[in-house]
Write a structure and sequence with these properties.
- The termini are far apart.
- The longest helix has 25 residues, at 115-139.
- The chain has a domain at 39-139.
- It has helices at 21-34, 42-60, 67-87, 91-95, 97-109, 115-139.
- It contains six helices and no strands.
């Protein structure tokens, strides 16, 4: 009896590629660098990028999609772009297109990883820019003052 490696098994454990966390950390750092220029559009841009990237990643995995999935993706992407433009005060929303591209690239890079690994990549993509906004920017002397209302 010979042992087989996990990559040669026919079960789901052998079907997934390993997650390259370094790639996702690098993308998250790039988003963290760009995010101050986008005002508050970056979270919406990450969401739109994940939405578009996951649609492309499902095509890479040869997963079937229905017309309803495609329509929902289009509607959600349109709502996300409008939210980017609103929360980015137009100019920041336009700059946030770079964040959409980076997040979409991250989704495609994790396309063949397991669902848990894809979730980890998404968490890293949100967590690193959030830490930059909440910790690093005030430490560097940037004053982030957000006021709603009068």
């Amino acid at each position: 009896m010979t042992a087989t490696s996990p990559s040669t098994t026919s079960g789901p454990a052998g079907a997934f590629a390993s997650l390259r966390i370094g790639v996702h950390l690098l993308i998250a750092l790039a988003i963290a660098v760009v995010s101050p220029l986008t005002a508050l559009a970056w979270p919406f841009a990450i969401g739109v990028g994940m939405l578009l990237g996951s649609s492309q990643a499902s095509r890479l995995r040869d997963e079937p999609s229905s017309l309803g999935d495609d329509v929902a993706t289009g509607v959600l992407a349109a709502i996300g772009v409008l939210a980017m433009l609103f929360f980015g005060a137009l100019i920041g929303g336009i700059i946030a297109i770079l964040v959409v591209v980076l997040a979409s690239f991250s989704e495609r890079a994790a396309a063949l990883a397991s669902p848990v690994d894809r979730g980890v990549a998404r968490i890293v993509l949100f967590l690193v820019p959030a830490v930059a906004w909440l910790v690093v920017l005030p430490l560097l002397g940037f004053n982030v003052d957000i006021r709603l209302g009068g």
